[in-house]
Write a structure and sequence with these properties.
Elements lengths: L3 E4 H6 L1 H11 L3 E5 L2 E6 L9 H5 L15 H7 L1
Parallel strand pairs: 1-2
Antiparallel strand pairs: 2-3
Organism: Paraburkholderia terricola
InterPro entries: YefM-like_sf (IPR036165)
Family: Belongs to the phD/YefM antitoxin family.
Length: 78
């Protein structure tokens, strides 16, 4: 399906109406400047991620977590 096109001046006058149309239809809208595409307005589809998924791969494993760390090992651990 082809995206709807609207001029900047028309978009400015009816922005809230266009936002509602985009939210309800889920389709993009191209805003033109002198007939040329300038902007694309589309619904936001954020990626929902669990907190564990966000942290995955960010924690370094340390086998001897209860033993003291040597000074030269501390530099490489950072």
């Amino acid at each position: 399906m082809q995206d709807k096109r609207v001029s900047k001046s028309e978009f400015k006058a009816k922005a809230l109406e266009f936002f509602r149309q985009i939210e309800s239809s889920g389709e993009s809208m191209i805003v033109t400047d002198h007939g040329k595409p300038a902007l694309e307005v589309r619904p936001y589809h954020g990626a929902e991620r669990s907190p564990l998924e966000v942290l995955r791969g960010s924690v370094v494993r340390y086998d001897e977590s209860a033993s003291p760390i040597e000074e030269d090992d501390w530099e490489t651990a950072q």
